[in-house]
Amino acid sequence: MATADGTFQYKERFSEDKARTYFRSVRDRALSSVGLGTYLGEPTDDVDDAYYETIRAAVEGGCNVVDTAINYRHQRSERVVGRALADADVDREEVFLATKGGFVPFDESRPEDPGEFVAEEYVDSGILDTDDLAHGSHAIAPGFIEDQLDRSLRNLGVDKIDLYYVHNPETQLDARLSGAVYDQLEATFERLEERVAAGDIEHYGVATWEAFRVPRTHDHFLDLGEIISRARSAAKTAGNTATHLRAIQVPFNVFMADAFTVQSQEGPEGDQSVLWYAHEAGLNVFTSASLAQGQVLEGIPDEVDEKLDGDTPAQRGLNFARSAPGVTSALAGTTSPEHVRENVAAGTFEPLGADAFDAVFE
């Protein structure tokens, strides 16, 4: 797992040419504020090979945050992450590794009959009850998430995962009422607290797409305060002295800034954006889609672009995401070693200060 000594050793090795705020903290660990995502790409051997080289280029070049999920590319992303980290010229203790469970994964490729695969692999085996499923493809029930965690540990070839996310729990709101979703999250958090105590994960979190950036009236809204409260209850039930809920993941980029502009969370002094709420609650924030899945590369609006430092649109886009309050690391997916080096080089520039970032939205 990532350790304080390992990540600070990594920071010392790569901080010489980076701006002051490039490395940021998760508890006592130093993390690069540019991270690598592994969602993109077809489930092919050629893409596996490209990811292998890209992951090695990232962690050997100053990016020590790697994010994946068991369903990405039908488990291929996790497996190539594991191979690349094992072969890279860095210690495991220097790299912060995150993965997710929630969407039912296929194995290497899409089966001819996905429904039959889910039934045979998960329902008939007793891992899932059909009532746990939303859209026939998503579940957050404790037994399912625990099974997915075990598979992820095997896919990654590691003894411990630094951050394990419950993936897009808002998907369950299409199948059950919000109270039932919170109840299921609490039960799953209790299981994850037990896995923390067992040494299989260091922390856990919630990775979302819509839940934290839509208004409270939206069908997919989830209340972060309620989630934190459920995590505290889960920790207490599991016999832990404090919750190990440590992070959230939200989409955030220059074209999709709802996590900052939509005040959907009820704070102690009024409504707040999820970024501010998470920051004040002591949660780390990891931004997904930081380059808007390539849209940023086609150009940033002039009134924003002129405020950002960086030699390329990708660097300026990442520096926008890195400027938001409470953001620990901005994730960007790529299968190109050249592009990942370009992304990491965004860290040679300072992100916007708080006043300059606020001025973008005035």
The pLDDT mean sits at 97
Residue stretches low in confidence (pLDDT < 50, at least 5 long) are: none
* Share in helix: 25-40%
Shape: globular
Please outline the major beta sheet.
8 strands, parallel, barrel
Q: Strands of the biggest beta sheet: in what spatial order?
A: 3-4-5-6-7-8-11-12
At the fourth CATH level, what is the homologous superfamily? Answer: NADP-dependent oxidoreductase domain
Number of strands: 12
Query: At the third CATH level, what is the topology name?
Result: TIM Barrel
CATH architecture: Alpha-Beta Barrel
Strand content: 15-25%
Topology order in helix (H) and strand (E) letters? HEEEHEHEHHEHEHEHEEHEHHEHH
What is the end-to-end distance?
42 Å
CATH class: Alpha Beta
Structural class of the secondary structure composition? alpha/beta
The value of Rg in angstroms is: 19 Å
Question: How would you explain this protein's 3D organization?
Answer:
The chain is an alpha/beta fold and 362 residues long. It has one domain: Alpha-Beta Barrel (TIM Barrel). The chain is built from 13 helices and twelve strands. The protein has helices at 4-14, 45-59, 76-87, 114-123, 142-156, 178-197, 224-238, 258-261, 274-281, 302-305, 313-323, 337-344, 354-360; strands spanning 23-26, 29-32, 34-37, 65-67, 96-101, 161-167, 201-207, 245-251, 265-267, 270-272, 284-288, 327-333. Strands 3-4-5-6-7-8-11-12 form an eight-stranded parallel beta barrel, surrounded by seven helices. Strands 1-2 form a two-stranded antiparallel ribbon. A two-stranded antiparallel ribbon has the order 9-10. α3 (76-87) links the parallel β4 and β5. α6 (178-197) packs across α7. The protein starts with a helix and ends with a helix. 51% of the residues are buried. It comes from Halobacterium hubeiense. Residues 35-214 form the NADP-dependent oxidoreductase domain. InterPro entries: AKR2_Oxidoreductase, NAD(P)_OxRdtase_dom_sf, NADP_OxRdtase_dom. GO terms for molecular function: oxidoreductase activity. Keywords: Oxidoreductase.
